Amino acid sequence: MAMPGSDTDTDLLAAVRAGNADAYGTLYQRHSAATKQLAHTLAPNPADADDLVAETFTNVFAALRAGRGPLVAFRAYLHTTLRHVCYHRARRDRRLEFTDDLTRYDPGEPFLDPALDRLERTFAARAFSQLPARWRDVLWHTEVEGASPAEVAPLLGLTPNAVAVLAHRAREGLRQRYLQQHVAIAEQPECRWTGDRLGGHVRGRLATRDTARLRAHLRWCGGCRGRLAEIADLDVIRHRPYRQRHHAEPAG
Prior knowledge:
Strand content: under 5%
CATH architecture of the largest domain: Orthogonal Bundle
Largest sheet: 2 strands, antiparallel
Number of helices: 12
CATH superfamily of the largest domain: RNA polymerase sigma factor, region 2, helix turn helix motif
Number of domains: 3
Distance between the termini: 79 Å
Low-confidence stretches: 104-113, 239-252
Shape: globular
Strand order of the largest sheet: 1-2
CATH class of the largest domain: Mainly Alpha
Structural class: mainly alpha
């Protein structure tokens, strides 16, 4: 007979799906410390970080009891869920403000939510790291260093026109992968296949056959339609910040 806590995560996940709540308690004990550490990097306020952890574990537990969620790699799924909880909280919270002073909504200086900005940087960095090396090189030279295609051409052994074309493809690839960072991990194979292509679909870059298959899936899958709506909104809005007016200090 296995000793308490000696079961693998896969065994415990199966037990949770079968209705064993104690198994989820064991998973919590194993992974809560690492999850709290990640939460504190996303939300430095201890209370906010604790709320993120609680909501994350609650959401994953509900998914498992509903027959969804991970079969393996529990910690990876848990941490991805936490990032999405943080992201959606930040988007929701910045839309809500109780005030009778409407002058702050006049054009002024941009206001950026630090937690959202930090999470977006994480998503952007991960998307960049997934690009082919050639695309990373051309983006670094043109977007970061601000070099022109003519200046980059000899570095990459290309003509200036070829550099411009490569940079365009690289920027589009980065946009697609950035959007993909916002797609929650799906459990069912067809949902996972669809989720992996939602960024390309939003950007209009899927092959005709893949588009037909994806649309057929979306007709009956509400979960994937929800994920598509989230990143489609993201692609349009691009997280435009609130703009706040700086009020002049009264004369002394």
